[in-house]
Amino acid sequence: MTHQMSDKQLKNQKSKITTISQPVICLEDISKVYGFGETEVRALVDVNLTVEQGEYCAIMGASGSGKSTAMNIIGCLDRPTAGHYYLDSVDVAQLGDSELAHIRNLKIGFVFQQFHLLPQLTALENVMLPMVYAGIKPDVRRDRAIVALTRVGLENRLSNKPNQLSGGQQQRVAIARAIVNRPVLLLADEPTGALDSRTTQEVMDIFSELNAGGITIVMVTHEPDVARQTERIVWFRDGEVVHSHLTPADIHQVAVS
User: Fold this and answer.
1) Nearest residue to 201 (alpha-carbon basis) of 232, 224, 168
2) What is the residue-wise DSSP string for the chain?
3) Which of 137, 193, 256, 257 is the least buried, fewest Cβ under 10 Å from its Cβ?
4) pLDDT by 10s per residue, the chain, length 257
5) Other C-beta atoms within 10 Å of 62: how many?
6) Which helix (H) or strand (E) covers residue 14, if one does?
7) If you classify domain 7-255 with CATH, what class do you get?
């Protein structure tokens, strides 16, 4: 499957040129080592990577390449063994657990393959939840959650619980929850892995619209057709970044090399 840019996408691209200004992600000589001695595994080796504000990137690589470890560090879910990680100009590699949790809640929105919605809560209540931890007032929470759900096309599903929604609709709720705190970075880990091809395209269209609106997106995926809809592909192999600025057209050549 090939995807050509529509006039709308080209217009969005041109409008974004003026918005890219400072790095949201800056990894400097990041290494991650698990175990000791004979059991030592070097998951990441001196990784350097920069993602500018407003970029839309895919992270790819074979199983065991280090892409998931890199994602966990970028998402402040794990700490590097060595190196510096600047998130929105803050060196987060040395922060304590409570500080990392605060950074995650305010600066990063997460979208996973499994939607991780609370089954007893409505779509609106699920989206409001991150704002509870952020200390946002209840009336503001509701208003912002409605705006986020409207942004992903679910303004008529506010009172539905997850079991009353399709898989694609549940992922939309998860995306709304991820953006409701207005993060500087949206991290998506195999966000279409549990969806059929039609629903995958619907979700990818939402990501494209969000990015066109200025949200920086980094997505881990093993699906070439998904990665081709981003603007830049970062390829991991054996714990290292072997290609940092692939274009969508380059994926097939790298995948078979």
Assistant:
1) 168
2) ---PPPHHHHHHHHHHTTT--SEEEEEEEEEEEES-GGG-EEEEEEEEEEEETT-EEEEEE-TTSSHHHHHHHHTTSS--SEEEEEETTEE-TT--HHHHHHHHHHHEEEEESS----TTS-HHHHHHHHHHHTT--HHHHHHHHHHHHHHTT-TT-TT--GGGS-HHHHHHHHHHHHHTT--SEEEEESTTTTS-HHHHHHHHHHHHHHHHTT-EEEEE-S-HHHHTTSSEEEEEETTEEEEEEE-GGGHHHHHT-
3) 256
4) 444 455 545 555 544 544 446 799 999 999 999 998 888 899 999 999 999 999 999 999 999 999 999 999 999 999 999 999 999 999 998 788 888 888 888 899 999 999 999 999 999 999 999 998 888 998 899 999 999 999 999 999 999 999 999 999 999 999 999 999 999 999 999 999 989 999 999 999 999 999 999 999 999 999 999 999 999 999 999 999 999 999 998 887 776 55
5) 13
6) helix 7-16
7) alpha beta
Tokens 């970075």 locate to 185
